[in-house]
Write a structure and sequence with these properties.
- By secondary structure, the protein is mainly α.
- The chain is 81% helix and 0% strand.
- It has helices spanning 15-48, 53-81, 83-102, 107-135, 141-169, 175-181, 184-194, 201-206, 210-220, 224-246, 257-272, 275-288, 293-321, 323-348, 354-386, 392-421, 423-443, 453-459.
- Helix 12 runs parallel beside helix 16.
Length: 465
């Protein structure tokens, strides 16, 4: 390869790179808002539509089934039509999903538009990290791709805060509609701002638009030398891609087995921590631990705020400490917090009071801090980095598909498990899974910080696979 696999100094990311990364990351904000906003509405939905625990789980989880569908096709669409164009489609889907759920006259219509909104989330989880990774200098890629996750947690916090405010000011019979519909506002902003940023040079070059790729690269790079180097690396990688395509190496092949297993592992462990189940049902968990309704919604805002603070801390060090170090710290934090929560639910076992609700809040704050500093900040950066350019779209789709499949399962089953076996068993299951993650990070996960995307294949040993 024309560039070293060692981390080397790069010019600072220019204003267009930063602006483009921020705009793409706004898709993550809507992603996070959509993930958490249902937590404020699920109680009302169960009452309005007379839902059983399983039906409630389905109503909440249907969006994650939509994300699976979106994740399956997003990579191929992004490879064919462009990362930027697919992001535009995502903005439109977000708007349809939010307005459709807000005005849904029946449970079936609500499910349909929850599914549609989930498609947008799944596509965003694939396209936004790819887009940002491909416009970012290697030395800044972790922080810039991490902006997607920052905006996800900012969206979660805004959703919790929005739910709290709407619950206090809107009539009870329509508050849930306002909670679900307000997501249209950031969706429209995201769609409009996308019109101001370019397609990635890598995609343009791979589709024969060389002049446009060079022009865009020069706008994104801080110096002519950096742009020339980037274009040379892309050309060399595309030549290698063409050679391998002539060999007709499929995505699910021995050559890519290593990175496929890495993507599967980090995505599965992300959801086996229980994070989405906790985010979706946070007010309910706190209420069942002894808090009043108003206290539960206010405490949930605290959980969202901790998520944001820990994510900000992670993004300041992810390109210095590396992805693996953050995952190690987060894994230990998972075990401490989940162990604490498990013990609390077994000790109190239905005899909940104000003290137990405060202790559960402390456990949730520690849990979400561990998640945000580790898995939350690393997953999309790591998956966007490890796959070669020719299969990056397919790889990101696979990682996202794995993530959302496990999210759907945990979200669907969580209410039933808690109802049948209790919160202690639910958190114990998550605790055991996180023992597995710590072992995987310690023994298997490689470090990817500072490596140019074109050199990642060699670094991970795929050329000799």
């Amino acid at each position: 390869m024309s560039s070293s696999t060692q981390e080397k100094p790069r010019s600072r990311a220019n204003s267009l790179v930063i602006r483009s990364a921020i705009v793409a990351a706004l898709g993550g904000l809507v992603f996070g808002f959509d993930t958490a906003v249902i937590s404020g509405a699920e109680g009302a939905l169960q009452e309005v539509f007379s839902l059983s625990n399983f039906s409630l789980g389905l109503t909440v989880a249907i969006a994650t089934f939509g994300t699976i569908f979106g994740a399956i096709f997003a990579g191929r669409l992004a490879d064919r039509f462009g990362r930027h164009k697919v992001l535009l489609w995502i903005g439109i889907i977000y708007i349809l999903g939010s307005l459709g759920t807000a005005f849904a006259p029946t449970h079936i219509i609500l499910l349909i538009f929850r599914f549609v909104g989930g498609i947008g989330v799944g596509m965003s989880s694939v396209c936004a990290p790819i887009y940002t990774a491909e416009i970012s200098p290697a030395a800044y890629r972790g922080r810039l791709v991490g902006l997607v996750q920052f905006n996800v947690v900012l969206g979660i916090l805004l959703a919790y805060f929005s739910n709290f405010l709407i619950r206090r000011i809107a009539p009870d019979d329509v508050a849930w509609r306002w909670m679900l519909g307000v997501m249209a506002i950031p969706s429209v902003i995201f769609l409009l701002l996308l019109l101001t940023v370019p397609e990635t040079p890598r995609w343009l070059m791979s589709h024969g638009r060389t002049d446009a790729a060079i022009a865009t690269s020069r706008r994104l790079c801080s110096t002519q030398e950096e742009s020339d180097e980037q274009i040379a690396e892309i050309k060399e990688q595309l030549a290698e891609d063409a050679r391998l395509r002539s060999m007709r190496t499929p995505f699910f092949s021995r050559r890519y087995r290593k990175v496929i297993l890495m993507a599967f592992a980090i995505a599965a462990f992300n959801q086996l921590s229980g994070v989405n189940a906790i985010l979706y049902y946070a007010p309910r968990v706190i209420q069942e631990a002894g808090a009043s309704d108003d206290q539960a919604y206010l405490m949930t805002v605290a959980v969202g705020f901790m998520n944001l603070i820990a994510t900000m801390a992670a993004l300041t060090v992810i390109d210095r400490l590396g992805r693996r170090t953050l995952m190690l710290v987060g894994s230990i934090g998972y075990l401490l917090s989940l162990g604490f929560l498990t013990a609390l639910f077994f000790v109190y076992d239905g005899n909940y009071n104000t003290t137990s609700s405060v202790l559960v809040l402390v456990g949730l704050l520690c849990f979400i801090a561990a998640h945000a500093f580790g898995q939350g900040s690393v997953i999309w950066v790591f998956i966007s980095e490890i796959f070669p350019n020719r299969v990056r779209g397919a790889g990101q789709s696979f990682g996202s598909l794995t993530h959302w499949t496990f999210a759907a399962l945990t979200t669907l089953l969580f209410p039933s498990i808690v109802g049948a076996l209790g919160g202690g068993i639910a958190f114990l299951i998550f605790f055991i899974c996180m023992i597995g993650q710590l072992i995987w990070v310690r023994l298997v996960m490689p470090e990817t910080k500072g490596i140019p995307l074109e050199d990642m294949e060699k670094k991970l040993g795929l050329r000799d696979a």
